[in-house]
Specification:
The protein is α/β, with parallel strands linked by helices. Helix content is 42%, strand content 14%. The model has no long low-confidence stretch (mean pLDDT 93).
Length: 292
């Protein structure tokens, strides 16, 4: 399952106004939320609202990918969430508070039933788990590799984790994450790459701080993340710009690929003042894939 998406915008599932604004946004994917942003008393009407929204939005072209963040598997609400929205055919499900690959497998089985019951193609609905929202989840990040063909990416979150750890804050005064959240971020990146899926960076909550957001995006891109979640529509342009390779980066990647193509038997080549080997070729191919 292949889908390169840079920006993932959270949209509350109980607000027609915000859903309409999300649909008009340049985000590659919308995360239509039934979990934290919807009060318990609003879950039932929000499910119907999202079902209608997805039915309608799927007719739009071009359109963002439509993912629904359901409630956690342990809450007893995930089943009703899926019963309500699967007839509309969402592109994927975001699974909060995922503990391990076993939770992805559990969700995958539910999705298979929902697809069969609603005449949808088998395996069409992807899964993005949020993999660092509990203390125990940090010990399960190696288990996602091979868990499901539906696994499209792995995202991490610092806010629920800080509550689980009893932390006073998760960021330093300069905006950098404190040590426990740096660990969670790194484990998510490594776990996603081990599972051969896309690593998705967490939200930047100071939505009016564009410079801070840009620094956060650039650091994530530098380290290997390919996408970032957003909590406000205004954040999407910065995210899209940062995670789209620049013309200079694309030209450099093309030059590396061309140099290896001219010397197919060479393990190491010289390009300018650098000696390059296979990891550089693989990185260059990744750049061109993202540029498309």
């Amino acid at each position: 399952m292949s889908m390169l998406l840079r920006s993932w915008l959270f949209v509350p599932g109980d607000s027609e106004r915000k859903l309409a604004k999300g649909r008009e946004n340049a985000a590659d994917a919308l995360i239509l939320d039934l979990e934290d942003s919807v009060a318990p008393s609003g879950k039932v009407p929000a499910r119907q609202m999202l079902r209608d929204f997805i039915f309608d939005a799927r007719r739009q072209s071009p359109r963002p990918r439509l993912f629904v963040r359901i409630n956690g598997l342990e809450t007893g609400l995930a089943g009703p969430d899926l019963d309500a929205i699967m007839p509309a055919g969402p592109d994927g499900i975001m699974l909060p508070k995922s503990r391990s690959g076993a939770d992805v497998q559990h969700l995958g089985a539910k999705l298979a039933v929902g697809e069969a019951e609603n005449g949808l193609p088998d395996g069409a609905c992807a899964i993005i788990p949020l993999v660092t929202e509990t203390a125990a989840s940090l010990f399960g990040l190696a288990s996602y590799a091979g868990a499901s063909q539906r696994l499209l990416g792995m995202a991490w979150g610092a806010e629920d984790l800080s509550a689980a750890l009893g932390a006073q804050t998760n960021r330093l005064p300069d905006g950098d994450f404190t040590a426990p959240y740096q660990l969670a971020r790194t484990l998510t990146l490594v776990g996603a790459r081990a599972a051969e899926v896309e690593p998705i960076d967490t939200v930047f909550t100071a939505f009016r701080d564009e410079a801070g957001l840009r620094r956060d995006c650039e650091a994530a891109r530098r380290d290997g993340f390919t996408a970032k979640m957003a909590i406000h529509p205004a954040q999407v342009p910065v995210i899209n710009e940062t995670f789209t390779p620049s013309p200079e980066v694309v030209a450099r990647a093309q030059a590396i690929i061309a140099a290896f193509a001219e010397n197919p038997q060479a393990g190491v080549i010289a390009l300018g003042d650098e000696m390059l080997d296979r990891p550089h070729l693989l990185r260059a191919k990744g750049v061109l894939a993202r540029a498309k």
